[in-house]
Amino acid sequence: MGVQSRQGGVLMQAKTSGIAHSCFAFITVFVSSSYGAESLLPSTPPMAKIGFTTTASAQVENRTNNAEISAHELDASANFASHEFSSVKLVFGAHYKFTRYNLDNLNADKDLYVIEVPIRFIRQFGKWNVITNVTPGIHSDFEEIDDDDFTVTGLLRASYQQSDETSWVVGVGVDRSFGDSQAYPVVGIRYAPDEHWRFDLIFPRLSINYALSSRTFFFWNVLPAGDKWDVEVDAIDKEFNVTTKAIRISIGAEINLSEHAWLRIEAGREVNRSIELVNDNGAAFDLSFEDVNFAGINILYRR
User: Fold this and answer.
1) How far apart are CA 71 and CA 145, in angstroms?
2) Residue 73: which residues within 8 A CB-CB, separation 6 or more?
3) Closest CA to 76 of 277, 300, 254
4) Rounded to the nearest 5°, which phi and psi values hold at 148?
């Protein structure tokens, strides 16, 4: 890449712009419970999606250099197989993400990839819906692959349908949403008071949705956007474990284009951004980053 170690750290700050998309299995599972029959909001996650996300240029905080970084991301995911065994439904999926990070003033860039295979087990009995999600994957620049590039994340979540309007949710997740791999609680309430509104107040991902009609709805989301990567910096022949942390806040809309196709547009800001870099010798240092705006567009398939 032709940059110094400090600039390599700058480069990785934009990775947070797409992290929320790299957890496809977890995002879909939080909205998979059924709602009241009168709701105008979609009752199931999309079967497939493809989208593009871009971030504005930003700098490292408290630095005097003029290096600015931006990111451009292509993201695609789909459920490609589903099987039912008595009371259990087994769903296989696939997720691919390509992101190019540009150091705008240094004529340098870095390509990173995510390939994941979400495996989801769903069991519903009575008013209970239990979902177990296991997602093996790889997060890599593919310059040199070792054990640090491979990941396995998981989620166990149970929801209880108290009424047509209210569901209670409890569970535990293990992934890199908060940076390094760690376990965290999943707890909250899903409340749909009428056909237009749905409140998914479930830690750690919160959303409010409003349906203008059965063909158009608006949303507001807050969620963690962290990850951990094993990255090669060619110019200095060094390998770094890079752990990113951020909170993503966004607003957007989904519009029904045809019987199965939806257009999703989204814009927002990532705040409280930071990164920790650990080199081969175990030396670590932290950087904080400017808040950054982002925008995205997706085509979704629902049935």
Assistant:
1) 23
2) 17, 18, 21, 52, 53, 54, 97, 98, 99, 100
3) 300
4) -70, -15
What average pLDDT does range 219-223 have in this prediction? 96
Residues 6+ apart with CB under 8 A from 275: 9, 12, 13, 242, 243, 244, 245, 286, 287, 289
If we measure between CA atoms, which residue out of 252, 164, 243, 171 comes closest to residue 207?
A: 252
Give φ, ψ of 199 to 5 degrees: -110, 115
Residue 190 to residue 297: CA distance in whole angstroms: 26
Residue 32 CA to residue 301 CA, distance in Å, equals: 15
Encode pLDDT of 138-158 as tens digits: 988 888 888 888 999 999 999
The two tokens of residue 142 are: 């593919």
pLDDT, one tens digit per residue, over 158-185 is: 999 999 999 999 999 999 889 888 999 9
Listed residue (43, 47, 21, 36) closest to 217, CA to CA: 43
Residues 6 or more apart whose CB falls under 8 angstroms from that of 212 comprise: 196, 218
Global pTM value: 0.79
